[in-house]
């Protein structure tokens, strides 16, 4: 009987996952909570498939799993998986790229409005007995402001369209698109520097990889408008946290809305928590009951399809 191992999960009971595996006659273990390479190696020896959320799937891990045929990700990001090594070994890598793109786009807009309308600050003020506007002045009209998206994938385009519906002008930048063109949704494509200098909101929507780690650094932050805000619902590592903290402290930019962090969970004593010009949410952008259902079932479906000799719905390395 083929065995699927869940390396780590913070998604609760696996009744949904098990129901998919049962349809194929595969066994799926209670989730492990692997954090290190050695943790993973200790549980993959007899695995035919593995499902991973954050645990490292390295070449050394793959060497320890001779029966492995598929690595399936709980979600979109696959920065913890050595895809090149998997491909060399004939191991399929799958993810679920579209399960929550509307929710993440909604989160980007929610963080934007929380900052652009001073929602969090005003809430704190009124709870402390201050029924005034002084703490958030000056606020400016949203209609006509520029919402710029870094990356023009599915989430970024959805966020831009939602922003346009509220009244923002929209633009985007992406290495796959030539400046001067427009996307099919009508988003104006500009250079990265043009986006930074013109946007009132810079919303980040790129995957974390070597080329995007700390893409938003001190030099980039210095090119933003001083009254602009930064939104990150992508991956924490895309933003240089120390540089962002300095920019927020020095008011190089007006504020930031962050759903993701370089260290998760965010430590209670993290410097970001003490700042009054940042809105923080706990990597919640993916969540709705509907997206959670897809998140829990589709990784198992992908893994089971590979093990059953079928083409999975979502596969990242070619040749399978």
Description:
- The protein is of the alpha/beta class.
- The protein contains eleven helices and twelve strands.
- The chain has a seven-stranded parallel β-sheet with strand order 8-7-6-9-10-11-12, sandwiched between helices. The protein has a five-stranded parallel β-sheet with strand order 2-1-3-4-5.
- Helix 5 packs across helix 7.
CATH class of the largest domain: Alpha Beta
Helix content: 25-40%
Characterize the overall form.
elongated
Report the total helices: 11
Question: Which fold name fills CATH's third level, the topology of the largest domain?
Answer: Rossmann fold
CATH level-4 homologous superfamily of the largest domain = NAD(P)-binding Rossmann-like Domain
Give the SSE string: EHEHEHEHEHHEHEEHEHEHEEH
How many structural domains in the coordinates?
2
> Biggest β-sheet: count, sense, barrel?
7 strands, parallel
Instruction: Say how many strands there are.
Output: 12
Mean pLDDT, as a whole number? Answer: 96
Low-confidence stretches: none
Which key features would you list for this structure?
320 residues; alpha/beta; Rossmann fold; 2 domains; five-stranded parallel β-sheet; 11 helices; 12 strands
Q: Layout of helices and strands, plus pairs?
A:
Elements: E1 3-6, H1 15-24, E2 27-28, H2 37-41, E3 49-52, H3 59-63, E4 70-73, H4 83-88, E5 92-94, H5 101-116, H6 119-127, E6 146-150, H7 154-166, E7 169-173, E8 188-189, H8 192-198, E9 201-204, H9 218-223, E10 229-232, H10 241-249, E11 255-258, E12 278-280, H11 289-307
Parallel strand pairs: 1-2, 1-3, 3-4, 4-5, 6-7, 6-9, 7-8, 9-10, 10-11, 11-12
Helix pairs in contact: 1-11, 5-7
